[in-house]
Specification:
single chain, 245 residues, alpha/beta, Rossmann fold, nine-stranded mixed β-sheet, 9 strands, 19% strand, globular, binds S-adenosylmethionine
Length: 245
């Protein structure tokens, strides 16, 4: 299978193709941070639960079709040798993982209490043995639309940027690889944290989405870089600590 590459900047390279074929061509990778297909044959038609959401396309809920490779068990083996590794969906392939740290994304929304969604998702990080939790409320279509800068839900299993910021911050490496980047959320987190990012996705529609999201991110960064620095606020003594004679 041939693949396509977009070098968006010195620090962002995106590939459209099969990560197993592209991996041997990549240079030094310090960390793998990814949300691979879990092997659960997830039905991405979110309208199946209510039968009504198709009437509200502005919420970005849709039938995205099957996620490539999600119907077969995920084998994490080829990613485990990298110096730092974080993989989401670990409860689905836990028997194939060595002991490591457990990451818990608590996503249950109080407002959506009683819906079909899981309360949390489980990730695995290479090394250690602790359990670490992050609360980021699950984002429905409108919240995602805001995060996507007006683009409707970019991917059926799109992760929140805040969650991926937390993951990338848990690694130290300069160059991060997401071999199953979907719509590129890990890349946005890397851009915001000044890390180099290499992203791969097999489906051209998600590759195009990732390119677009990262281009928007780069433009915003340039805007911020050009904005004049705000003046430093005048130094004030904390209340109650003023110098008393
Ligand atoms: C769980 S999704 C990742 C979603 C991502 N976290 C986001 O925020 O958009 C996994 C992605 O891996 C892609 N994929 C499946 N097999 C692949 C392969 N062999 N190489 C590259 N990408 C693959 C699927 O197309 C899917 O978009």
């Amino acid at each position: 299978m041939s693949w396509r590459t977009e070098q968006l900047s010195d620090s962002v390279t995106l590939h459209c193709g099969d990560c197993r074929e592209i991996l041997p061509t990549l240079g030094k990778i310090d960390a793998v941070v990814s949300d691979p297909p879990y092997g659960m044959a997830w039905d991405t038609d979110s309208t199946r639960f209510t039968g009504g959401n198709r009437k509200r396309p502005d919420e970005g809920r849709a039938d995205f079709g099957a996620i490539t490779a999600d119907a077969e068990p995920f084998d994490p083996k080829r990613w485990l040798a990298f110096p730092e590794v974080i993989l989401w969906g670990a409860n689905h392939f836990g028997a194939r993982l060595p002991v490591g740290s457990t990451l818990v994304w608590i996503k249950k929304s109080v407002r959506a209490f009683g819906t079909f969604l899981s309360d949390a998702e489980i990730g695995w990080q290479k090394g250690g043995h602790g359990v670490y939790c992050k609360y980021v409320e699950f984002q429905g279509g409108l919240a995602r639309k805001a995060e996507n800068d007006g683009v409707q839900a970019a991917h059926p299993t799109q992760k929140p940027i805040d969650l991926m910021l937390w993951c990338v911050q848990r690694t130290k490496g300069r160059t991060i690889l997401d071999p199953y980047m979907g719509s590129g959320t890990t890349g946005i987190a890397c851009a915001r944290l000044g890390r180099r990012f290499i992203g791969i996705v097999i489906e051209p529609k998600y590759f195009d989405t990732a390119c677009r999201r990262l281009e928007i991110e780069a433009k915003q960064e340039r805007l911020f870089a050009q904005a004049p620095a705000a003046p430093e606020p005048a130094q004030q003594m904390p209340l109650g600590l003023g110098g008393e004679a």
